[in-house]
Specification:
alpha+beta, 60s Ribosomal Protein L30, Chain: A, four-stranded mixed sheet, two-stranded antiparallel sheet, 3 helices, 6 strands, globular
């Protein structure tokens, strides 16, 4: 099985983004992953605050992606929803380290939105993903 075609789309006159890509073009089998929060397979939120919830949400994304035969480098888009902008900014380095532990140094197109709240009580972050994996 080969990897899908994957190209970073970066206008030459724009500054290079840090930690994400401005755009991605890919071909293969599309996988859409619903918003994942920082809970375990038993639907219990992990303790430890925002960074721990980010790490668990990313682990959940990788687990769902694996069901489609994919891996983190197949991710083409991540949409992040956080309830506390100040907490996100204050913990950006720790969040980045958690991201690299789970996803590695692969940076798909990303969007971050600050929201008033999430459906699950105590959830601090929700991340939805799109991936393109090789055709079976």
């Amino acid at each position: 099985m080969s990897d899908p075609a994957f190209d970073i789309l970066q206008p030459k006159d724009w500054p290079r983004p840090l930690g994400y890509s401005n755009g991605v073009a890919a071909s293969g089998r599309y996988v859409f992953i619903a918003g994942q929060i920082g809970w375990t397979a038993e639907a219990k939120l992990v303790g430890g605050g925002l960074v721990a919830q980010v790490e668990q949400a990313l682990r959940n994304i990788v687990a769902v992606l694996a069901e489609a035969g994919g891996a983190p480098h197949h991710l083409v888009r991540l949409n992040w929803y956080v309830v506390d902008k100040a907490a996100y900014l204050a913990q950006r380095k720790e969040i980045g380290a958690a991201y690299r532990r789970i996803i590695g140094r692969h940076y798909p197109a990303m969007t971050l939105l600050v929201v008033a709240g999430l459906l699950e009580e105590g959830a601090l972050v929700e991340i939805e993903a799109t991936a393109v994996v090789p055709e079976r």
